[in-house]
Here is the input.
Amino acid sequence: MRKLLVIILLSITVIAVSCRKNKTFSNDTSRNIELSSDTLTFDTVFTCVGSATRILMVYNNTDDNLKISSIRLEQGSSSPYSVNVDGASGTTFQDVEIYAHDSLYVFVKVTIDPTDENNPFFVEDRLLFNTNGNQTVAHLTAYGQNAHYIIGNIGIFPDSEGHYTNYYTPVTDSVNKDVHWTAEKPYVIYNVALIDSEGTLTIEAGTRVYFHGGSGLWAWSEGQLIVDGTAENPVIFQGDRLEDFYADEPGQWDRIWLMEAREGHGHSINHAIIKNGFIGLQLQRMLKDNMAQADITNTIIENHTGMGIYTNCYTANVWNVLIDNCGYYCAALTGGGNYLFRHTTLANFWTNSARQTPALYFDNYYTDPTDGNTYAMPFNCELANSIVYGNHSNEFDTDFYEQSSDTTYRFSHCLLGITRPHSDESMYEACVFNEKPKFVNTEEFDYHLDTLSPAIGIGNPAISTGILRFDLDGVDRGDNPDAGAYQYYYSRIIL
Here is the structure.
């Protein structure tokens, strides 16, 4: 009997020991946790001070027990987010145990007053997990202000090399073909807002459109963009960082990309400010012939790391437009096309990096990716009453595959900074060469003409009619127009 009791006690001990979890934790760097998502998006827009909570699952899919040495919010106690792990709330946690093939709940909460216009549009932080020397990251983002948000569900953060994967969010579709954006609240684009085929997006005067990093606006083939600003209330396109530091910081977003238009539905941009991106406007024929021209009028396109306007085999009118301070070209007109520039200032005084390209560039060819052959395309461009100048001695260049009757360009009554031959009067009519235009202040992006500017009075009055009678500020050019987007106005300079 005594022997039997000993055996029973030993059996109970073995069973108890076998049921107890193994408390040994692996420090093998090949063993790491996994997260249910690498992004938590708090997509509720509050109308007053409020909060929302999301759940993040942490998995140990290995055969070993793991100890998460730290879980912490990157912004620490200054973060608008708070975290709850195993019933404890805070911003930092140490030595969190997670057993083999087990999981852990992490609750993340954010509190925001979206009526506070000092908030950024997106309130972001990162939740960092460190396990066996491995860092695992969960990105946290919430809406910080009341606005219209155009946002995708996934792919909104850059990869480890800083590259973005764009996910397209339609703003027009087969049901909602005509969409209007109003000035009541700003529009914030996260990823790419897509104008679908046969859809029209109209943006009214005073509307503000903000782009998160890597984001853009894209009109697909036969879609249409109409920007209908006014001199008093232009439509503004810029990055979504509103701190003073970012006011003149280029490269904050991607581009506005307009593909070929359908007949009778050409793209139109009037009284807009497009600034601080990679490419201001990309006009590109891709899938079929372009059936309607783009009209870009009374617009400022400035401070882009790439190009102000990039075209490929397009037809466009660019009137009363300032294009300035770009890392490559103010305007690159490529692959052929037909272009008419009137009272346009192309001024490139870029200083953020060593620019190797002119302010204005033409070419007339494309290389077919299917057969590798290069083909010349018809090209025609005329600039009248305009300025092309910058901090390089030569601000105009061409690269024509074939130059024939289908490839022509002409400058009329312009001020040009160029070193290439320019004695042919059929190509350069009544132009002023290599004289500083004497802009008011290029460092502050002020391209009005100063008192002694040689661009004053050199314009052709026959060009300055209709909408071109008034400059970019609405000043009457009268019968003695200046070259460029701005007419010299004495009392304006005094003020």
